[in-house]
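Problem: given the chain below (80 residues), write out its structure.
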Amino acid sequence: MSAFAEFGRERQEIDNLIGQGYTIAGIYEDLDGARVTFIRSAPAGGPVELRLLTADARKHMTTLLLGGSRQAAAAQETLI
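Solution.
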């Protein structure tokens, strides 16, 4: 499988989990890639772990993580 196809598959898995209401709970990086743990609060379910092997998929996950943090910070500023 080409690197682009592998990235597309991993990106789709990330986007599907986010679309189902999961949020990123933890990230463990090692030399083989990253293990990302997703959790969902409602309806409650067990954690889902996703293994990301491509650098582009890890960048996509980080962009989503930071984007969510910025949105939460902007919402807090609006409340103040």
